[in-house]
Design brief:
Blueprint lengths: L22 E6 L1 H6 L7 E6 L1 E2 L11 E2 L3 H18 L3 H4 L3 E6 L7 H9 L8 E6 L6 H9 L4 E7 L3 H6 L6 H14 L3 E8 L6 H12 L5 E6 L12 H5 L4 H17 L3 E2 L4 E3 L14 E5 L4 E3 L2 E3 L7 H13 L6 E6 L2 H13 L5 E2 H8 L3 H4 L2 H8 L2 E4 L2 E4 L1 H5 L1 H4 L6 H7 L4
Parallel strand pairs: 2-5, 2-12, 3-4, 5-6, 6-7, 7-8, 8-9
Antiparallel strand pairs: 1-15, 9-11, 10-11, 13-14, 14-15, 16-18, 17-18
Length: about 425
């Protein structure tokens, strides 16, 4: 029987509900929600919404061309927010701390040191930071080592100059090689390398070249992303890019090429995108872990309360929100987000676990929600008949085929209420 494959979606379900479904909130006391969370599992996320340039595919909350004075004021605002939340040395020990953006290493050496000093107990935390080739310097990496940063993620995207140009990346391939040499010399516990497939004019051969070049540096992890050209990005307005965008068939062939090459090289696939050398021997379920975002543009998850600053695309609107964040006296005031009901918690739990290689435990779902998973989501039976899912050891897991279709399967679990609030962003 021929399987009808889902249409390729351009929505990556890394969280749920999607931020475009968030809306105005009133009367929210964030400390009530913090008190109801298991703070021993609290993760902290720092968002640095600044870059030297905007990549052609980027629709993230970030701006370019800001003077050092603005970055200094932003760091001061973050320091104020940490104090208002009462995050102390004791409460932050053993936390998972992620610093993303934007490009965090756009900060000067002095500013980077100031940022890392904002978190007392950083040396006891599991910490991760993102960087790009042009911002990766020997001096900045030495600062990261001094604060015991555990994981550094480098956005290479391609080792082919013409493909970097097509993506409107501002670094040449030689800068990626230099950055990787520096990172290997500093010997961070975990090095992640990001690559993109589906770049205009990219071929299976050129993708294989980039993968093989990345493997020469033996990173601990790879994130392999399909290129989705979304509304509001500069590539969306470029006729040349859309004319040369790979067909759905070629995009799938590129995925399988990357997947087979990396697994044959000894990496374990954990999701459609993530491949690691040393997976955790004791995987845990996810979906309820609390996260608190510091700065402007990151999302926080505190039980049924999800919140962030409004999602905007235009640089001017983004800058207005950042400046308002800097100038707002009370940085714990919540005005924009989503309050999840039981149905949305079920969907979040299913999406977060099903799209991971370990799948979702039927017993845990029953224990948490006091109801049967296949009864709540009959579409799982349909997916099993289509060969997208299988039940192993009382877990529903995606098959290799299903895992390759994660970006099409995940959006089908969006509730009608969330879909309506997402509106034109679907």
């Amino acid at each position: 029987m021929k399987i009808a494959l889902p249409e390729i979606s351009q929505r990556y379900m890394y969280s749920y509900p999607h931020k475009t479904a968030y809306g105005p909130l009133r009367g929210i006391n964030v400390f009530d929600h913090l008190a109801s969370c298991d703070l021993s599992r609290l993760e902290i996320y720092f968002h640095i919404p600044f870059c030297t340039s905007k990549c052609g595919y980027c629709n993230l909350f970030s701006i370019t061309g800001q003077p050092g004075e603005t970055l200094d004021r932003y760091l001061g605002a973050m320091e104020q927010q940490i104090a208002q939340y009462g995050l102390t040395n004791q409460t932050l020990k053993q936390r998972t701390v992620t610093i993303g953006g934007g490009t965090p290493l756009i900060l000067s050496e002095t500013q980077l040191d100031r940022l890392l000093r904002l978190l007392p107990g950083m040396n006891q935390a599991h910490s991760s930071i993102e960087t790009s080739p042009n911002e990766t310097t020997k001096t900045k990496l030495a600062i990261l080592k001094a604060y015991s940063i555990n994981r550094v993620s480098l956005g290479v995207q391609s080792f082919i100059d013409r493909e970097l140009t097509a993506l409107k990346r501002q670094h040449p391939a030689r800068a990626a090689y230099h950055a990787l040499d520096l990172l290997k010399a500093h010997d961070f516990p975990t090095l992640n390398l990001d690559l993109i497939y589906g770049i205009p004019s990219q071929t299976l051969s050129s993708l294989q070249t980039s993968l093989e070049e990345g493997l020469k540096f033996a990173p601990d992890e790879f994130f392999i992303y399909p290129l989705y050209i979304r509304k509001g990005t500069s590539l969306a307005d470029t006729r040349h890019a859309s004319d040369q965008h790979p067909t759905p068939c070629l995009l799938r062939d590129m995925y399988w090429l990357a997947r087979d090459l990396l697994t044959n090289a000894g990496y374990t696939q954990l999701s459609m995108r993530r491949f690691v050398k040393h997976p955790s021997p004791a995987p845990t379920s996810c979906g309820f872990e609390p996260m608190l975002a510091i700065g402007c543009g990151g999302r926080s998850y505190l039980g049924d309360l999800h919140f962030c600053h409004p999602f905007v695309l235009s640089p001017s609107a983004c800058q207005q929100i950042i400046m308002a964040y800097i100038d707002t006296p009370d940085k714990t005031r919540i005005t924009h987000g989503y309050l999840l009901n039981q149905n949305e918690h079920k969907r979040r739990f299913l999406i977060k676990n099903l799209l991971h290689i370990h799948g979702i435990s039927l017993a845990e779902y029953l224990k948490v929600f006091q109801t049967d998973l296949p009864h709540d989501f009959p579409i799982l039976h349909e997916w099993a008949q289509q060969g997208f899912t299988q039940t192993i050891d009382n877990h529903i897991r995606l098959t290799p085929l299903g895992l390759s279709l994660s970006d099409s399967i995940g959006p089908k679990l969006i509730s009608p209420a969330v879909r309506r609030r997402m509106g034109g962003h679907q």
